[in-house]
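Summary for the steering committee. The consortium agreed at its last meeting that each partner would contribute one worked example illustrating the joint modelling workflow. Our contribution is presented below. We chose a case with several input lines so that the handling of multiple components could be demonstrated. No manual editing was applied between input and output; the record is shown as generated.
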Amino acid sequence: MEKTVEKTVEKTLVIQRYNPEHDQTPSQQRYQVPFDNSTSVLDALLYIQQSLDPSLAFRWSCRMAICGSCSVMVNGIPKLGCKTFLRDYSGDLLLEPLAHFATEKDLVSDMTLFLQHLQAVKPYLIRQEQSAAITPATKPQPHKQTPKQLAKYRKFSSCINCGLCYAACPQFGLNPEFLGPAALTLAQRYNLDSRDQGKAERMPQLNGKNGVWGCTFVGFCSDVCPKHLDPAAAVNQGKVASATDFVIGLFKP
Amino acid sequence: MSEQHSPRRPYLAPLTASWWLKHRYYRFYMLREATVLPLLFFCGCLIAGFYSLQQGESSWLNWLSFMAQPWVMALNALTFAASLFHAKTFFELFPRVMPLLPAPLMIAGQWLGTVAVAALLLLLLGGVL
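What follows is the complete predicted structure of the assembly.
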């Protein structure tokens, strides 16, 4: 009886390695990984860690493009590891940690700056009555919203904080203080929300030198966004809001 | 506690001056921004034209013959092409910044406006040139 030998097709992954305890600068290491039609970059990384080299460090969680943890550079382009498939690459794959962020180890980036920028734009609903103490007597009422009001900001609300847009943004690379695509999109998302009353608190951040005017509409952020929420459009809509805010400010006593 | 040794030593790759050569998208962006360079030459020509017009006839004729030189014509043809290219990218980005109407409609409208203004200018100034 003839035995079916499964043909193993392999691909070479070149991975940037950096161990802060021994290395001065990163180096590259090559791995041979078997793959089929369904093998994602994350699957390949898990295979390497489990079968070839347990010292390889990378972040991951959900494997379904919603946690935003497995962001890496694949052949120089920011990608989610779980949403990128080996079958789509004809040659070797070069995997590096996210550009413009500091590397902690191997493919793990230090996302502190990103999180600080997100916090800076107050990405949450701000209500004026929140300052008053909520007692059983002043029971908060739900803030209703029509589908039309929802449609205004919905497009910008599906950010998963993966940071791909920051790795795509040369302005963030040149000036790490630039608030960047995701944070400015989030600011626009809350400014467009009919339930929010915090626009006045966000505008100084958007108007500032690290706000919307730091963007030059390179547009690569929208190209790499795994949720297609067009951050470049949101940031540039923020410019319209900022200019309007400035003109209104001129006529205010 | 603050004296405790941390094994953390984040490595930040330096961003070189040639960052924009590394990716097709960045090269396209730089090309778009570089369209201002030939435009700068055309603006110089235009200002010199107004100045020579004010200086008198001989100066004006000098300017006309300068503008008719092949290299000036070639450079201004490049400016024209570059400006059209810039207009195309601008018209495509505009509906994303101010989404007032469906994007294809806004793009078509902007081109229509460009053609209308160009036709009007030709009609008004065509006889002069």
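Chain B has one domain: 22-125. The interface with chain A takes residues 7-13, 15, 19-20, 22-23, 25-26, 29, 33, 93, 96-99 of chain B (CB under 8 Å).
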